[in-house]
Amino acid sequence: MKLIASLLILAFFATVPLWLQDQYYLHTLVVTGIFMLAAMSLNLLLGFTGQLSLGHVAFFGIGAYVSALTSLGFSVTIFGMPIVHEPWPPFVGLIFGALAAGLCGYLIGKLAFRVRGAYFVIVTISFAEVVRLVSLNWVELTNGPLALPGIPPMTLGFEWSGYLTLWGKAQNYYFVLAVIVLTYVLIRRLVYSPYGRAMIALRENETLAVSVGISVTKYLVLAAVFSGALAGLAGGLYAHYIQIIDPMIFMFLNTVTMVIMVITGGKGTLAGPVVGGLIFGIAPVVLRSYVGPEVQWILYGVLMILIVFVLPEGIVPAIERWFNRGGASRSPTGRGASSGGSSGDGSALALSGSGKGNS
Question: Where is this region: Disordered (predicted)?
Answer without folding.
Answer: 327-359
